[in-house]
Amino acid sequence: MKINKVKVVEKPWGRELWYAVEKEYAGKVLEMKKGYRSSMHYHVKKKETMYLMEGEVKIERDNQESIILQEGDCITIDPGEAHRIIPLTDSKILESSTPELEDVVRVKDDYNR
Questions:
Q1: What is the pLDDT of residues 57-66, one digit of tens each?
Q2: Bridge partners for 85 per DSSP
């Protein structure tokens, strides 16, 4: 049995709690604060599935209608699909993905990174 420590990564919009980085998948919880948002971005190879544990968020996708997720909803974001997350309330999102962790491309960076 392998015991992992949660890696906490502070972000302008809240924080990420990484609980798994394995060969086949990665998993984290996004804790997002109302009034903030992620930058518009996409991943070259990474496929993400997001489950809204708490709160309400809007997912903006490039050239598509926005989607409102409420607690208990789930969405999959394919590689190359530009998107941003806008929390409408303080929110927690469980995200699992393929393990390509360093392939983010920011289309519009709201935080000058």
A1: 999 988 788 9
A2: 59
